[in-house]
Structures are given as structure tokens and as C-alpha cells.
Amino acid sequence: AARAGLRCIILIPHGAVALGKLAQSIIYGAKVIAIRGNFDDALTMIIEASKSFGLYLLNSINPFRIEGQKTAAFEVCEQLGWRAPDRLIIPVGNAANIAAYWKGFREFYELGLIRNLPVMTGVQASGSSPIVQAIKEGRDSIRPVKNPVTVATAIRIGNPASWKKAMIAIRESKGLAESVTDEEILSAQRLLARKEGLFVEPASASSIACLKNLIESRVIDRDEEIVCVATGHGLKDPDSAIKSFQEPVVIKPEFNMLKEAIKG
Asked: Could you tell me the domains of the chain?
């Protein structure tokens, strides 16, 4: 919007959006309006505003957004040497991403560019998991979570707009829907940072937490080729990392104290 000279209006749930993401919106010149409610309340209001004021709605319910998101599946196949992985594990919030990835894989498969389709595994936080509950209970629709609670702000959505498409992707691929706790998410975030040097936001770490759980419970085979989607940078949502990590050691500018701190 900034590059095109267009006015941008962003509705967010008050106090529920990570500061890193909020800073990005503000610095680009968007008018940010906070709603005293959750993500679902904000979505309902922006849909109404788009109809009343003729605004272009750029949200996951916009089909053109799905067309853009599906190209991530194309990139996965390209990087794997023009084949799909055995399984894709992906965080699910508003549920557009898992639907878009599945669309991308299906299109490549139908064009003959890949020979297999992956098993799709959607991950939600345990305090915000309406799709997981519906899949596990064999239902055809979700029961929205009125007050979703999780440290993973990007997937703190109780009534996903694209839940139908997400459930189709999971069921068509004979996949899974799994939930992970906040403790498991934060543990996976630390693990990924310390073992791979990758700092991702909590929502992205949920895919790693899910992978760990599925391997330990022997639901999936260690020999499977698995892709975990973890594309959200940690600086987009640094609050949880700051709260859960040890504060820096403070010393006087004396070398002996530095030696003790290094040894300690």
C-alpha cells in the first residue's frame, strides 16, 4: 500500500497483537484501529467496513491471497528437486495457509510436475484448536472457541475463516490435526534457536513442537521426509522469548569479573 500510494486501514484485537507486527504496520503509515475484542470480532467488523466504505479486503478470505500463498508449495517442491515431501506440518490460525499449500501441491500434481502428494498435518495451540477438535471428533463443522488463549499470537484465532478449506485439505490428504501446549511451543522455539540458529515466533515453533510429539509417540516414521513450515521470524513476536529467557549477566567493567562470568 505504501509503495502504491494507497491508504491502508488495519483492524486488530486490542492488546492481542505482538509489538513487532504492530510496529511494522505503524512504520509503513497504516491507520491502525484496535478493537476491544478478539481476532474474530475484528474480522467481523472489517468485513462490514469493507462493504460500507468500499474498502478492498485483503484478508485470508480474499481468494487472491490464497493464490499468492499457494506458491509457497511450489517453492517447497522446487527445493526438494521437483517432488513433494512425504508430510507437511504447518501452523493453523485463520487456516488459509494449509488450504493454500494443499491447493499448490494439488495443482503441481495435476500438471504432472510432481508424482506424489504430501500428508497435510495442521497444528493449533491447545487453547485455540477448533479445527483439531472437529477432526478428532469426526465432525463436519467446527465449534468456535469464544476466548482463545495461547502465547502464539499468530494462531490465537477461535473461529478460523478458512476452516472448511483446512478440513478438506487434511481429510483429502489423509492427514492429521494436532494441538500443542504453550509449554511445548516455547520449548520448541528454544530448541530450534539453540540447535539450528533459527529464531522463529511461537506460532511457527508449533510445527516443530508437533513434529517432536508425533515422532515420540511413533505416529510418524523417522524415515519420512518432512517439511515444517516455520516462516514467522522471532522478532515479529519477541515478548514471549524475552519473558522466558534468562536476563543478561551484569558486571562491572573489570576483567576479573568478566573471567568469572565466562566460567560461571
From this structure: 9-59 (3.40.50.1100), 64-243 (3.40.50.1100)
